[in-house]
Specification:
single chain, mainly beta, Cupin, Cupin_2, six-stranded antiparallel sheet, three-stranded antiparallel sheet, RmlC-like_jellyroll, RmlC_Cupin_sf
Length: about 130
């Protein structure tokens, strides 16, 4: 068993390559099983921040914890808010983030299950 208290774990500001504007703020946990890496983190986007289009080799699930944001794939955009659960299928090109005219931050927890020998594919900015 591996238990991590996300409330008290050290916060990290990173210059993640998926980010289209400034750094993501995240904290999370990681473990491995059955040849897959499983990760979870809470990510906060300030107004106007969003990821670039990207695709994961595994499943990505987002759970919105604060604010109103946007999730999108090649077929369109959806506004999401606290309590929404979003599923991106393996290989689905998508982006997520805060609205350009937002007055507050947008946060979600992501859960990723990916084969440990495959990498995230980063594409263009939306």
């Amino acid at each position: 068993m591996d238990v991590t208290n996300i409330q008290t774990s050290e916060k990290e500001v990173s210059d993640h390559p998926v980010q289209a504007t400034t750094a993501l703020i995240s904290d999370g946990v990681s473990s491995e099983f059955d040849g897959n890496e499983v990760r979870a983190a809470e990510v906060t986007f300030r107004p106007g921040e969003r990821t670039k289009f990207h695709a994961h080799p595994g499943v990505q699930i987002l759970y919105v914890t604060e604010g109103v944001g946007i999730v999108a794939n090649r077929n369109g955009e959806r506004e999401v808010s606290e309590g929404d659960l979003i599923l991106f299928s393996p290989g689905e090109e998508h982006w997520h983030g805060n609205k350009k005219d937002a007055e507050s931050q947008f946060s979600h927890v992501y859960f990723l299950t990916e084969p440990e020998d495959e990498e995230l594919e980063i594409l263009e900015s939306p």
